[in-house]
Design a protein that fits this description.
This protein has 8 helices and 15 strands. With 394 residues, it is α+β, with helices and mostly antiparallel strands.
Length: 394
């Protein structure tokens, strides 16, 4: 899902490429440490994702889970299971790392809620059995981002409580679309090949790709690059077709709905924001100045949730003035119609000289789901039968 100021439609005007800065940009071939930073961030996201899933039980509070998920990421970047530098993640003086931490705050979006749900404690809700939960989070090491998302149905059991009906249809559809995307994102292929595959597969299960969702290329301190894959193309929402190139990194984000696939804005409070680095304004209120100072130090270029800030009251005051003067981009909470379900899968993929490498994401527990629909298209069947190269054994 996109920040509110980001448009899914992209103009046909393509800026000239090849500036001196771009020509001097480091690649995985010239700087092997870059890949290690992405891998480290990816492992942390997977560990955090597993941890958050373990917290998802009936009666658990969503706000508390989101806060714990963020704390898990922050802890892991300091003391990680990845033993790169004496048990620390890039804390050695030999490693030039200026920033590390959350690249996207933990969000738990349930059932028809499409994304960005990280509520304040007094606006939260508790999980109940049968909820379809989309868990979305991200981490960065020195500005190099890994993001991931996974969908579960609370209480699902392969033997005693298998998921069926439209819940199963949308999860299986989303996963197959996601798996197809991971196999199609490789050097020489185009973004529109991915979009067409998502459209074809989701149709098999009588579901719809969610509009307004973009998979971006990412670079240092940039989670939303200009090269994108659109989840669903419409007359109003189009992107420029492009070929994938060597050494590119993409966050593949696939979302599928049992409804029309047209997310709607709601009255649910927006809590996820990102600094609008292109804008400046001298804030008037003391709370606002302190709030903006704090987030500028902690999240200079990455999205954050005010729900995870220690002083949520000051954050509410500060964020209002910042938004009013365009100092923040908003990630609003969007929903489908009540009674519908939205499923999501997301992973980070690197296009190396040796081929595509999927950095994160969890295996799909297919035995939990049963659908009456089945993919018959031989081209898609053959595509899904291949295995992507995965760093974390997706």
């Amino acid at each position: 899902m996109e920040a509110k100021d980001k448009k899914a439609k992209k103009t046909e005007e393509v800026e000239e490429e090849g500036s001196e800065e771009e020509e001097e940009e480091e690649t995985f071939e010239t700087s092997p440490a870059l890949l290690e930073k992405y891998k480290t961030a990816a492992v942390i996201t997977n560990d955090a994702l597993k941890y958050v899933i373990s917290l998802c039980i009936p009666g658990a509070d969503i706000a508390e889970i989101c806060i714990k998920g963020d704390k898990k990421i922050e802890e892991e970047v300091l003391i990680s299971k990845v033993n790169l530098q004496a048990g620390k993640v890039y804390t050695s003086k030999k490693c030039k790392v200026t920033e590390k931490g959350i690249a996207f705050p933990t969000c738990l979006s349930v059932n028809e809620i499409c994304g960005h749900f990280a509520p304040l404690k007094d606006e939260s809700r508790k999980l109940v059995e049968g909820d379809m939960i989309k868990i979305d989070l991200g981490c960065h090491i020195d500005g190099f981002v890994a993001q991931t998302a996974h969908t579960i149905v609370l209480g699902a059991n392969a033997e005693t409580k298998k998921v069926t009906g439209k819940k199963a249809d949308v999860v299986i559809a989303a996963r197959n679309c996601f798996d197809a995307a991971l196999r199609l994102v490789k050097e020489g292929n185009t973004n529109m090949q991915v979009t067409k595959a998502i459209e074809k597969i989701s149709g098999v299960y009588k579901t719809n790709p969610l509009e307004g969702v973009l998979s971006h290329n990412v670079k240092k301190h940039m989670i939303d690059g200009d090269d994108v894959i659109i989840n669903k193309e419409t007359n109003e929402q189009k992107v420029v077709e492009h070929k994938f190139g060597k050494y590119e990194v993409y966050v593949i984000d696939v979302m599928v709905s049992t409804g029309e696939g047209k997310p709607r804005e709601t009255e649910i409070r927006t809590t996820v924001f990102k600094r609008a680095l292109e804008n400046a304004y001298s804030l008037k209120l003391k709370h606002s100045r302190q709030f903006f100072h704090d987030i500028s130090l902690r999240y200079p270029s990455m999205p954050f949730s005010i729900a995870s800030l220690e002083d949520a009251t000051s954050a509410r005051v500060g964020v209002a003035e910042c938004v009013n003067h365009d100092l923040l981009h908003m990630y609003p909470v969007l929903t489908e119609k009540s009674g519908e379900f939205v499923a999501q899968f997301k992973a980070t993929i690197v296009l190396l000289a040796s081929g595509a490498l999927v950095l994160n994401g969890l295996p799909f527990e297919s035995t939990l789901y049963s659908s009456e629909f089945k993919i018959e298209d031989k081209e898609i069947v053959d595509l899904l039968a291949t295995s992507p190269v995965s760093y974390t054994h997706l």
